[in-house]
Predict the structure.
Amino acid sequence: MERIMSGAYRKLLVPLCDPDQYRGLSARLAELEQFETLHPQEQAAILEQRTRSLLDHAYKTSPYYRLVFDEVRFRSVDWQYGQPIPLPELNRELLRANMESLCSRAFRPDELRRFSSGGSPPTAMWRDVEAQREKAALEWHLNRLSGTAGARILELRPADRQQDGDMSSLRPTLQERIQGRFNALIRNADDDTFWNLLRFMNRRKPEVLRGPASLLAMFAEWLRGCGMAWHRPRRVIATGETPSPESRQTVTETFGCMVTRQYVCPDIGILATECEQGERLHFHPLSSYISLAPAGQSSEGSIYRLIITDLLNHGMPLIRYDSGDSVLFDESPCPCGSWYPSVSAVLGPTIENLILPDGTVTAGVPIVTRASRSFRSVHGVQLIQRAPDTMHLRFSSDDNSGAADRELGVFRKTIEDAFRIPLRWTLERVAAIRGETSGKVRAAVCEIPQDEHGRPLKH
Ligand SMILES: [Zn+2]
C-alpha cells in the first residue's frame, strides 16, 4: 500500500519538480500503452512514418546530414521500415568533431537541453525538450512493464578519476528524494566504496539496484565476505555487458531477488529491456531503429556491431550511430512472441574483443572480469593481445610480498584455460591502469590487425 501511495505521489509531484522531463507524463504513458495494443502492421506503419520524418527533418535542418545524404544520394522516400538506412555510420569521434553542424537548425538554443553522455570521457550531448519528455516517458513505460516504475532506485555508475563527484553524491538532492533515484558514482571498486554503498543501501532501502553487471557481481561478492547484514532490493537490473551465468547466480543469491537486464547506450540512454521467456533484450521500436553489422564469429554465434538510430532526438539527430558495443543475435522468433528487435547478449565494447587460436572472436571484458575474481593485492589489469598466442599484461599493485604474483598466476591460468593453449606472456607493472586518449580504460585490447568485419588479417 505504501508503495502504491508513494508511486502516485511521485507521479503527481515529479512533473511539477522536473517539467523538462516529465510534463505531460500521464498523457504520454497512455499513448505508449495504446501503442502496445496495436497490431504489428499498424505499429510498423507508425514507426515507418516516424523514422522517415526524423530522416527528413535531419536532411532539412542539420547541415551535417544534408552533406551526408547528398554525398550518397539518399532520400528517405527510397527507404522502407525494416530495410537498412544506406547512410555512413556516425561514431563518437565524428560526433565530437561535428557537434555544431549535427544540431538541428529548427530549434532555438533555449529549446535544446544539454545532457552529459555516460561514456568516458563524458561528452556534452543535446536533445530537444519535447524528445526529452518522450524519452523520459518511454523509460517510465519500460520500467512499468518490468514492475519498477516509480520505485526507489540506487544506480551504480562507474566514474573516471577526472570526473566530478564521488560517493558524496550519495547525499541526494530534493529532486532525487522525490524521484526516489540515487546515483552512486564509483571510481574504485574497493573496500571504502563498498562500505559506503552498504551503509547507504541499509539506510535508504532502495527497491531496485541497477548498474553494470561486472560491478554488481563484485559488490555481491564483497557483501558475502563483509560480515554485515545487507538490505535486499526486490529487483536487480544489470546493464552493460551480459553477465556470465556464474555472475548472474552470485548476484541472484546474494540479493535474493530476480536479476533482469537492460541495455543502456551511454550516449543515448536506455534502449532495451529483457523479456523473461526468451531472456533476450528487446529494443523498444519507438525509441530506436537498430541495425547489426557483422563483426566476426564466436563460439556462441555470430558477433555484430550494434548500430543505432535514435528516434527520440530531433535536436541533435543521431542516425546510424555506432554504439561501440558488440552483440549476439539470434534470428529465430523470440519465445515471448514479441516482434520487437532483440539480441541475445551484449558482449561489451567491440574494441575489447579478443581472438582465439582458431580465429573466432570472443568478448574480452567477461574473460578479464572472470579471471580477475581472486584479486585482492592487484588493483587493476589490462590484457593486451599482441598475437593469437602472445599476451602483454599491465597491472598495478603496491604489493611486494608475492601475493600479487600469486593472484596474477591465477589470472594467467584462467586466461589460458579460455584460450586452451599455452600463451606467451610479458608483464609490466604500472602505477595505475591509464585510459586511452579518449579517457576510456579498456580491460582488454586486441592489437592483431583485423579487417572491417573484425576478422584477423592473414599474413
Ligand atoms: Zn522476448
